[in-house]
Amino acid sequence: MDRNTRVLVQGITGKEGSFHTGLMLSYGTKVVAGVSPGKGGSQVHGVPVYDTVEEALKEHEVDASIVFVPARFAVNAAYEAVDSGIRLVVVVTEHIPVVDVARVVKYARERGTRVIGPNCPGVIVPEETLIGIMPTRAFRRGKIGIVSRSGTLTYEVAEILKEYGQSTVIGIGGDPIVGTTMQEVVEMFDRDPETEKIVVIGEIGGTMEEQVAKMKKEGKIKKEIVAYIAGSTAPREKRMGHAGAVVYMGMGTYESKVSAFKETGIKIAKTPYEIKDLI
Amino acid sequence: MKLYEFEGKYLFSRVGIKVPKGVLTTGHVDWKGTAVVKAQVLEGSRGKRGLVKVTDDVNSAIDELKKEGIEKVLVEEFVPHDREIYVSALMDRDTGEPMVIASRHGGIDVESSKDLYKRVIPMERGVMPYDVIAFEKYLEVKGLDAVIKGLYSLVVDYDAELAEINPLAVTSSGLVALDSKVILDDNALYKHEDLLKELGRSYSPDSYVELEGDVGIIGNGAGLTMATMDLVKLLGGNPADFMDVGGGADAERVRYCVEKVGSNPRVKKIIINIYGGITRCDDVARGIVEAYSKVNKPIFVRLVGTNEEEGWKILQGHGIKVYNNALDAVRDALR
């Protein structure tokens, strides 16, 4: 992803879609087209709008799509992007049923499309492009790769690390099932020549953090990782805001994640503010 | 949305899982013979709290529960059984497919059990006879077909995040679900409006989670709010709640959140941690100010991001403490 990445916005005429299209354009993102069923022929911030992805692709070449469509229709938008052969689909939308997410994520994977999200702030390559909703003030081009299950906490950490700058920041989303896992992003950062160190922002629930620890332990990840896990004070079986931040059957507790990281020598910050000292 | 036991059992019978004969009541019932009288509350460990009674004197048991403030009571036939086992189904986060979990020991705390059998059953094919055989062999029972298919259907067709039978009784006339724990996916409730109507439940999901401490916590974004809770604990305080105002909250939403957190009698002070992106600091400030006079408790606000200066002005104009840095806000609040 760089300044030449051509982006399609699905749900461009909605409140969120049009607002963030404006912000992405002013950051320099190449938004080439938008889709909103029934709104074909109109324009948003000078970007042409089409009724379907298929129609948009007849007129434009597109490398990635970002979905702002409301939850009930977001799955339709994601399938549409996958079927049109778009290789990267960022789903910002929150509150999609988990069974539906599981189905579309699998469908995309089998067809070679990478989904990021849902329920995520997207991706930013500072000073190159933004495919997401991150407030750009927190970011500066640099050498740290950040992967996070959270939104605002990511902005907070990015700003704390602003003097070092970031290579790429990816919010993978707060849902129980996501299109791109923390492990996959950490692997990509490990291969990425622009990234020197990796910051992992996890939270309770699921086992992605444990699996990152396992990869580090097995020597599959060479670069240094600093991690922060939110939710040390969260009670069991209570959902902490994110659909994915919940511990069922004792899986994915704070303690389990911290002990997995400790075993592998991954440094754990007790607060987001401590990340700066550890890096 | 967590269902009551009787609601979960209603779903069980709908998907073909056998449950004891019973009646839901708020008063006395006409009952002969031994019954199990169970308080219908959403919290767990009812047994330990004396909220489940096996008795011949059903109406006295109901009276006792009513004295405890229990509203609804489920009275069920006592089901004699040889063994108790455990079966549940949920979405497996790693594979993105439903998973069925079984244990030879029912009535247990599954978290601590090492004796578990887990099997991922892909949605593409659904439950097959050979899946059922595998569970029957492990559990050493017969006739599991309806139970496995029923729980699986609750996950796939009813959007249950968790569908659990603990315990499942092994009786001479088959398998009977003695308890139910069903949690529906909040995000999927719109697909099941008919069911909610039948159950007489309306549900508006809110992020609010009450905890035991005395420091009210409000943030924007789940991660940042959790991190604020954790920070308070780390610096020697005790969080009273988790409350995420959500993305792009307006003044009205913020007012509601501050009043909700402030109305908890245990809360002595409130910490609000906002990093404005889509959420605008001036909106947040207006919401806080509106709630401030009503709540009448000290509020410490960390406020940065979109329209920050405007937000600061509004808060300072009403004598509310504002900070740039969350650490300073929390330290001051805990002083």
Automatic annotation (TrEMBL), chain B:
Keywords of this entry: Ligase, Magnesium, Metal-binding, Nucleotide-binding
What molecular function terms (GO) are annotated for this protein?
ATP binding; metal ion binding; succinate-CoA ligase (ADP-forming) activity
PROSITE patterns from the UniProt entry = SUCCINYL_COA_LIG_3 (PS01217)
Q: Which domain of life is it from?
A: Archaea
Q: Under the cellular component aspect of Gene Ontology, which terms does the record hold?
A: succinate-CoA ligase complex
Identify the residues that the record assigns to the ATP-citrate synthase/succinyl-CoA ligase C-terminal domain, covering every copy.
220-332
Boundaries of each ATP-grasp fold succinyl-CoA synthetase-type domain copy? 2-169
This chain belongs to the protein called Succinate--CoA ligase
Single Gene Ontology BP annotation:
succinyl-CoA metabolic process
Gene3D superfamilies assigned: ATP-grasp fold, A domain, ATP-grasp fold, B domain, Succinyl-CoA synthetase domains
InterPro entries found in the cross-reference section: ATP-grasp_succ-CoA_synth-type, ATP_grasp_subdomain_1, Succ-CoA_synthase_bsu_CS, SUCC_ACL_C, Succ_CoA_ligase-like_bsu, Succinyl-CoA_synth-like
Native source organism of the sequence = Candidatus Aramenus sulfurataquae
